[in-house]
């Protein structure tokens, strides 16, 4: 795997206000850390980061270029990004130092290739996961893994054991774990028929005479009172 070079410099961790001012100046705050490294607050160019890293998927190695001996030529993974709740722009990034001689766990995207036979017959391709977690040396991290789905019919599925995994990469899943399947087409249920209107009319018609009878009894009561 090729490494992406980004210029970074240490900064003072001095609160949210300074971080906002840093962003107004076109730079992003971040932190560099690792199991064998002390945590270092850092800053880097916002445009350079967006151009080289912002649109990438999966895990990528980043080689830090810096005038500081604490950061110069360190290799790291972009571990986490924080986003602005309104604009969606990156406002902070965490970089995790890696040792190129030691295996690490990373997430590898899956690219589903081809058109499944079951989809041609009306089924729906249903990915269960769109990335898998795997263990490998940092330089062996695959950019992505292609998953050929053309042979899948309705009801068929592919499992982790069916994937073509690059040498040196070991998925951290059960071999029987389902990656993608083709499900039958969904059938919409017909709406329930409304209750017959005739029945309501009939009930109304029965109620009317009863009411009339009650009114007709009133004069007889009045005559009894007069008597």
Q: How would you describe this structure in keywords?
A:
13 strands, Ribosomal Protein L25, Chain P, 2 domains, RNA Polymerase Alpha Subunit, Chain A, domain 2, 6-stranded mixed β-barrel, 4 helices, alpha+beta, 227 residues
Written overview of the protein:
There is one protein chain. The chain is of the alpha+beta class. The protein folds into two domains: 4-97, Ribosomal Protein L25, Chain P (Beta Barrel); 104-183, Beta Complex (RNA Polymerase Alpha Subunit, Chain A, domain 2), CATH 2.170.120.20. It is built from four helices and 13 strands. It has helices at 16-24, 46-54, 117-120, 197-226, and strands at 4-10, 27-34, 37-45, 61-65, 75-83, 90-97, 104-113, 124-127, 131-136, 145-148, 157-159, 170-171, 178-183. It has a six-stranded mixed barrel with strand order 1-3-2-6-5-4. Strand 2 and strand 3 (37-45) form a beta hairpin. Mean pLDDT is 84; it is low at 204-227.
């Amino acid at each position: 795997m090729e490494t992406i070079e980004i210029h970074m410099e240490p900064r003072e961790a001095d609160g949210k206000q300074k971080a906002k001012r840093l962003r107004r100046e076109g730079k992003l705050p971040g932190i560099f850390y690792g199991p064998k490294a002390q945590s270092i607050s850092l800053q880097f160019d916002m445009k350079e980061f967006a151009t080289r890293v912002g649109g990438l998927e999966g895990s990528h190695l980043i080689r830090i270029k810096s005038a500081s001996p604490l950061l110069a030529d360190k290799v790291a993974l972009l571990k986490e990004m924080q986003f602005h709740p309104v604009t969606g722009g990156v406002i902070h990034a965490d970089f995790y130092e890696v040792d190129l001689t030691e295996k690490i766990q990373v997430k590898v995207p899956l690219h589903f290739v081809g058109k499944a036979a079951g989809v041609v017959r009306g089924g729906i391709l249903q990915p269960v996961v769109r990335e898998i977690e795997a263990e490998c040396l940092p330089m062996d991290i695959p950019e992505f893994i292609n998953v050929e789905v053309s042979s899948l019919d309705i009801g068929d599925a592919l499992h982790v054991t069916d994937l073509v995994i690059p040498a040196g990469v070991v998925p951290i899943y059960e071999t029987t774990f389902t990656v993608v399947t083709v499900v039958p087409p969904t059938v919409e249920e017909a709406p329930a028929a409304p209750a017959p209107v005739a029945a309501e009319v009939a009930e109304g018609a029965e109620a009317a005479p009863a009411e009339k009878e009650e009114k007709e009894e009133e004069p007889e009561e009045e005559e009894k009172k007069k008597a």
